[in-house]
Every structure is written in C-alpha cells, then in structure tokens.
Design brief:
83 residues; mainly alpha
C-alpha cells in the first residue's frame, strides 16, 4: 500500500472501479438483449417527431418537349456525365 494514499482513498477508488465495471457489464447486457426488441418496436411504431406521409399527393405534371429541346437536353446531360 502506498504511503501517501489513505485507506479511505483506496476503498473509494476500489468502489468506483467496481461500480464502473458493473455499470459497463449491465449496459452491454441491456444493449445486447434490447437490440431485437428495439428493432421490433421501431418496425411497428413510427417516429413521433416526423410528420405522417401523405398517401395521396398532387398529380405529377409533365410537358412535351420539342425535338430541339430533346437534343439540347441530351447534349447537356452528356456534358454533365463526361465531367
């Protein structure tokens, strides 16, 4: 036993180390055991902070392109792909 350390300091450090090890083991066991339950819960319950998705949305709009516009778009897309 070191001379400059009191018995209470040694007992306190031993107690803190034992509590830390017990906490780490308990945390590891809870995380390992709860992983499957948490995945099941997440699959059945949506996140409350996110808004619900709408099943019916606005209709998609489309515009017919002229042959000149189609050629211009093809040229633009090929330039983007080359970079």
């Amino acid at each position: 036993m070191p001379e400059h350390v009191s018995v209470y300091q040694l007992l306190g450090m031993t107690f803190l180390v034992m509590v830390t090890v017990a906490w780490a083991i308990g945390l590891a066991l809870m995380l390992r055991h709860g992983r499957g339950e948490a995945a099941l819960w997440r699959a059945t319950h949506p996140l409350p902070a996110l808004p619900h998705r709408r099943r019916i949305g606005p209709q998609r709009e489309s515009v017919e392109l002229t042959p000149a516009e189609e050629d211009a778009f093809a040229g633009l897309a090929s330039r983007v792909i080359e970079r």
